[in-house]
Amino acid sequence: MKKILVVLLVAFIIIQFFPIDKTNPAPTPGMDFLKIKKTPEPIAKIISTSCYDCHSNETRYPWYTSISPASWFVKNHIDEGRKELNFSTFAVYEPKVQSHKLKECIEMIEKEEMPLESYYIGHQDAKLTAEQRKQLVEYLKKVKEETDRKMVL
Predict the structure, then answer these.
(1) Distance (Å, whole) CA 37 – CA 91
(2) How many C-beta neighbours within 10 Å does residue 29 have?
(3) Residue-wise over 126-135: b if at least 16 C-beta within 10 A, else e?
(4) Helix (H/G/I), strand (E/B), else coil: 123
(5) What pLDDT is recorded for position 118?
(6) What is the largest CA-CA distance in the chain?
(7) How confident is the model at residue 22 (pLDDT cuts 50, 70, 90)?
(8) Residues 6+ apart with CB under 8 A from 37
(9) How far is CA 29 from the centre of its chain?
């Protein structure tokens, strides 16, 4: 039993030498969702607090991302989140893709699938109230309608 604990401790120490890359891509204000959609400040604050760590190039890495293997788990979530939807580069999406992404956001927020429950562990401020969910969904529906109208023109 003692040997197993020693091996686990040594393995834990060794994996600390394989940190994640915490470098965020350069800011792109001209392509950022909040800027191009002229998002009102109260809604922008909700989106920044509850979505941007995983779905933008403005990730704030908490202290536990310095400890492997927790850091690997978090980095994987961030990479997947950016791949699925990146608010920092929203303008590069074609209007049809933007509309689809907005529809998915609305659905995920309504079903309370986003933000992820696991995200709340270190980010209690990201937990959305029923009122915040309602405001966010109303805003995203409005933006989606505007995007859809522009596609028709």
Answers:
(1) 9
(2) 9
(3) bebeeebbeb
(4) coil
(5) 87
(6) 72
(7) very high
(8) 90, 143
(9) 17
